[in-house]
Design brief:
Bound molecules: adenosine-5'-triphosphate, magnesium ion
Number of helices: 8
Oligomer: single chain
Strand content: 5-15%
Structural class: alpha/beta
Distance between the termini: 28 Å
Largest sheet: 7 strands, parallel
């Protein structure tokens, strides 16, 4: 299935992926894309909405009505896998970061021609897996991670490796779940060899009301959500540089 025509070398292709629904894939993709497109990063960013639910596109439509006078800091486009492949050369040259927001389910059990999400993995340079503490079905998660690691192994022999990191989302300090979470993370590290980012995305109301225009990056802010966001984005940037 590995097709050299779809190779790219300039832009970084990034997916927040997990087989679970409602785990923050779209939220983290939009937040990160919004941050990298503005100060102090100022990257050329494209967010591809590959989900039929069109969450990112609808968010942008809403924002366009509320930020009438302003130019959006980055593009959000709805695209199928086929469409992405057709325009991969242009996308690759035009952008620094390309985020692809995919539907939740992994489709490796479907016939090959329907494996949209699996095929998108072939284009991906960095896969970030959002996790929520206490809600893991560890065996299912481990299976998913193992499939990813298999893809990673295959890609290690090519000139474009697949980097995979876990990201804690909905993290709450001092919650009882954190004790279980520690055990879960150790399990995943041990059984699947999955590396996690140091900075978790905490659970904040500010992350429920994101928009696609304004970055929350602010080194001086004492607001907890902005502080968390700034620390996360710095680590994300370092990992993907
Ligand atoms: N760190 C967070 N703090 C607070 N709310 C969050 C956080 N992350 C996500 N949410 C909220 O959780 C809900 C689900 O998030 P989101 O839509 O990003 O998940 P998803 O994985 O993209 O879901 P789907 O599988 O349906 O595509 C949303 O209402 C979002 O606002
Ligand atoms: Mg989503």
């Amino acid at each position: 299935m590995y097709n050299s025509n779809i190779n790219h070398c300039m832009a970084k292709f990034i997916v927040f992926g997990n087989q679970k629904g409602g785990i923050g894939k779209t939220t983290l993709a939009v937040l990160t894309a919004t941050g990298l497109s503005q100060d102090p990063f100022n990257k050329k960013v494209l967010l591809i909405d590959n989900d039929n639910q069109q969450s990112a596109i609808r968010l942008r439509q809403y924002d366009n009505e509320h930020y009438e006078e302003e130019v959006p800091p980055y593009f959000i486009k709805g695209m199928t896998y086929q469409k992405i492949v057709e325009s991969i050369k242009d996308i690759d040259q035009e952008y620094d970061y390309v985020f692809i927001d995919t539907p939740g389910k992994l489709d490796h059990n479907l016939p090959p021609e329907q494996q949209e999400v699996t095929k998108i993995l072939l284009l991906t340079d960095f896969l970030f897996m959002p996790f929520k503490g206490g809600a893991l079905n560890l065996d299912a998660t481990t299976d998913y991670v193992k499939i990813l690691l298999k893809a990673q192994k295959h890609r290690a022999e090519t000139d474009r490796p697949l980097n995979i990191y876990g990201v804690l989302n909905f993290y709450k300090e001092r919650s009882r779940i954190n004790r279980e979470l520690k055990e879960e993370l150790e399990y995943l590290k041990k059984h699947a060899g999955l590396e996690f980012l140091n900075t978790p995305f905490k659970q904040y109301v500010a992350y429920e009301y994101i928009d696609t225009y304004k970055s929350m990056y602010d080194k001086k802010s004492l607001e907890p959500a902005k502080k968390n966001y700034t620390t996360f984005l710095n680590e994300f940037y370092k990992k993907t540089k």
